[in-house]
Amino acid sequence: MKKLETYGVKPHDAGMKADGQKWSIMEKLLLGLTLDQYIGQALRNKLNWFLAIIFAIGIPVILYRFVFSLGAVTHSSYDYPWGLFLGFGLFCMVPLSASGFMLGTTVEIFGRHDFEPIERLALLNGLLGYFFAVVYLLVDLGQPWRLSYPMVYSFGPAAVLFLVGWHVATYLSVQVAEVSTAFFEWIGFQRGYDFIRKGTVGLTVSGIILSTLHQGALGALFLYAPGKVHPLWYSSAFQWIHFFTSSIPAGLCMVICVSTVVIYTMKWRCDQRFIDNLDRITISLAKGAAMGLSTYLIIKLIAVAHDNEWAYLTTGWGIWWLFEIVGFVFAPLVILSYAIRNKLVGLCRIGAFLTVAGILLNRLNTALITFNWQLYQEIPHYLEFIIAVTIFGIYVATYRFILARLPILYQFKSQAEK
Amino acid sequence: MSKITRRRFLAGSAAGGAALMLTPAQKALAAGSFEGFPEGMGVLVDFTRCVGCRTCEAACNEEQHLPEPAKPFDDTSVFDEIHHGQKRRPTDKAYTIVNRYEPKDADKPLYRKIQCNHCNEPACLTSCFVNAYKKTPEGAVIYNSKVCVGCRNCMIACPFHIPAYSYTSVLNPVIKKCIFCYDTRLKEGKPPACVESCPQQVMTFGKRKDLMKIAHERIKKNPGKYVNHVYGEKEVGGTGWFYLSNAPFEEAGFDVNLPKKPIIDNVKDFLAIVPMVLTIWPALFTGFHLLATKGKSHGHGDDHSHDEQEGH
Fold it and tell me: Do A143 and B173 touch (CB under 8 A)?
């Protein structure tokens, strides 16, 4: 894309062409380039080649899973019924997608319009994260074609998973509606755009409700297994609030991470408003994340005190817990605080990546690593890793496809000029 | 208050209300502790009588039409099998298994039969989001595999590591576990196949409450023979199958740290928060919205500023 810009080619970024004609859908899909130009830039892109390799290996493995059963790609463990697909795909993707409701709340509820340049990126990050969490779930479920059963056919309202299922499904539709404004702009459907904009506050508020509950509910799922999760990662009183609170820095830092990747790799797609505001917004998001992290750190310690689990800290698991808390909660907190104080955007970004890594570690610790700590350690089947990476690759490809087209990182010209 | 803000307030409340309706009330959970159906049946298992002949395994295999095992039922080498440092456990092809343990102070090995304990308030049942499980008045914990989605949450929840999953099935993988021979026997008041087959009368079938008395009498009448504990009387709210042992239960591979309360009690606190969040949040955040945006847009009287930026 960079190369084309030097030749004076501009990507599609307005409802009308310069000569006043409307863009056709095909032209929009090709970003306003000619077919040759489009294919040329796609082939030059190294990430495309990298993804192509992943898909060439991974997609046949996914098909293999559906043709030869779950037993063919996992260790079929009865003691570890949840492997990487849920441990990573569901428990990690969902907190990292809390950005949608966080930024939605900031802009729409608290009226902080100075965050607007990043709002749509945060909403999209939320939508895609949830969507792909569901994709992971579909791969993991024994009978994915029955996914709608808890919705329409057989209800188990007393189960936490029932709540998770309903809330993720509802929230996914809320997020589709929230992101659809960008889509309506892109296809030029003004009435649809107006209709959704009118309901923004309602959508945002239901987003907060649903997020509070299902982020927490993912933690509450482990309350069913008091003897199986290690006591340091288990808190009968605070489990849900640990998961909910940690999802706040997780979502905010994920937006910082994604925006960092975007500004370095897709700068052609960002408009001046996004580029000019990003440093300021990154520091503001880091402030939010630092507050979230400090709260999370304290409630994690309170949980240890509440259940009087200090003795565990001297065991091997205790050292592992300290590694997580010191290395991935306390350290990013210090880094972020220093970076905010000295207005160091780069350092904020390092802190954000560390926070995201910490969330991954925490969720994997709870769901897989410390799970069944009294039994044995399960190392997932290598095909499970391949499938998990492949789905993540599809996520990245989809993410980029949408960012390159919809007005997420840029404003449509007709709007911007007003 | 301007017209717009009121409408937005209503929109917020309506969205909250809709979310409330979408989530069927969790109030059923608020019910007090359930201690099992009064006429529920149970089985008392006395490990001091078990010789590890595995006849019960064979009887279960036949009764439940399970596939032929890799090793015949008279092969005692299975007692030495170790997977991931663990002894055998029930699988989708064997709903009950017998394991051998060597307690420290005992002169002979202890054989322990493992199968579903048919809890009074089963964790599997309460964790199932399609309500596939059912505790029948006869005392069995059965399940409807026709609605099983395959989330395997029951396997996470079961404190006894009982439910197994037919991972290798492509089109119809489902949960598999002991059902107390409900369909073929218990429903008609007959004992399950394993109990009937036992040559040593290790297991006694009867009403749970009567068996509990027998268990305590056996402990009282044979001083020194048994550990003074009926495993399953109180554990996780009480189980339909319970055990007498001559060696400490932890030496027979039992988890002795299980809570006395049913597993669902752990989750109730969280579930109680759900209706509160659903009702309080809409008003709270719509209120925040009004407080935060009122007067911010310099003369507009409402939050039109945003809409203008968006090009209305």
Answer: yes
State the pLDDT confidence band at B300, using cuts at 50, 70 and 90. very low
Give the SS3 label for residue A415. Answer: helix
Write the CA distances from B252 to A395, B47, B97, B112, integer angstroms: 48, 10, 14, 7
Q: Cβ distance B43 to B181 under 8 Å?
A: no
Cα separation, A186 vs A180, whole angstroms: 9
Higher-confidence residue of B85 and A4: namely: B85
B256 vs B249: CA distance, rounded Å: 7
* Structural domain that includes position A127: 45-411
How far is the C-alpha of A285 from the C-alpha of A293, rounded, in Å? 12
Predicted confidence band of residue B312 (pLDDT cuts 50, 70, 90): very low
Residue-wise DSSP of B36-82: --TT-EEEEEEGGG-----HHHHHHHHHTTPPPPSS-TT-GGGGG--
Sequence-distant contacts of B68-76: CB under 8 A, at least 24 apart: B69/B93, B69/B94, B76/B52
Yes or no: say if A75 and A381 are a contact pair by the CB < 8 Å rule: yes
Q: For A144-177, how does the pLDDT look when each residue is reduced to its tens digit (9 = 90+)? A: 888 888 887 888 777 888 888 888 888 888 888 8
**Residue A213: CATH number of its domain:** 1.20.1630.10
Which of A168, A177, A173, A164 minimizes the C-alpha distance to A108? Answer: A177
- In whole angstroms, what is the distance from residue A176 CA to residue A159 CA? 26
Question: A223, B270: Cβ pair inside 8 Å?
Answer: yes
**Predicted complex ipTM:** 0.84
Distances in Å between the Cα of A122 and the Cα atoms of A329, A399, A408, B97 are 22, 12, 9, 52
Tokens of A224: 């069913």
Supply the angle between the helices A345-364 and A272-306 in degrees, to the nearest 10: 40
- Say whether A78 and B288 touch across the interface (CB within 8 A): no
Task: Quote the pLDDT of residue A6.
Answer: 60
Q: What is the rounded end-to-end Cα distance, in angstroms, of chain B?
A: 22
Q: CATH number for the B30-265 domain, one of 1.10.10.10, 3.30.70.20, 3.40.50.300, 3.40.390.10? A: 3.30.70.20
To which H or E segment does residue B112 belong?
Answer: strand B110-114
DSSP H/E element including A338? helix A331-341
Q: Is residue A33 part of a domain?
A: no
Q: How confident is the model at residue A136 (pLDDT cuts 50, 70, 90)?
A: very high
- Cβ atoms of residues A388 and A74 within 8 Å: no
Question: Residue B111 forms beta bridges with which residues?
Answer: B100
Give residue B303's identity as a one-letter amino acid code. Answer: D
A418 domain residue, yes or no: no
B contact residues 147-176, partner A, Cβ 8 Å cutoff: 147-153, 155-157, 159, 161, 163-165, 167-170, 172-174
Instruction: Flag whether A112 is in a domain.
Output: yes
Residue B164: name the closest of B155, B173, B172, B156 by CA.
B155
CB-side exposure of B56: number of CA atoms within 13 Å?
28
Number of structural domains chain A divides into: 1
Q: Which of A77, A146, A223 to mutate against chain B (most B CBs within 10 Å)?
A: A223
pLDDT at A254 over 70: yes
Instruction: State whether A113 and B12 contact (CB < 8 Å).
Output: no
Q: Where along chain B do its domains lie?
A: 30-265
Give residue B33's pLDDT.
57
